[in-house]
Amino acid sequence: MACPAPPRSRRGNRVTAARWADLLRQLGHDVHIGQEYDDSPADLVVALHARKSAAAVAAFREAHPDRPIIMCLTGTDIYSDLPAGNADAIRSLDSADRIVALQHLAMDGLRPAWRRKARTILQSAEPLANPPAKSSRAFEVCVIGHLREEKDSFRAAFALRHIPAESRIRIRHAGGAYAATWADEARALTDNEPRYRWLGELPGGEARQVLARSRLMVISSRLEGGANVVSEAIVLGTPILASRIPGNVGLLGENYPGYFTVEDEKALAELMLRAEREPSFYRRLENACDALQPLFRPDRELDAWAKLLDEASGRR
Question: How far is the C-alpha of 300 from the C-alpha of 210, rounded, in Å?
Answer without folding.
Answer: 26
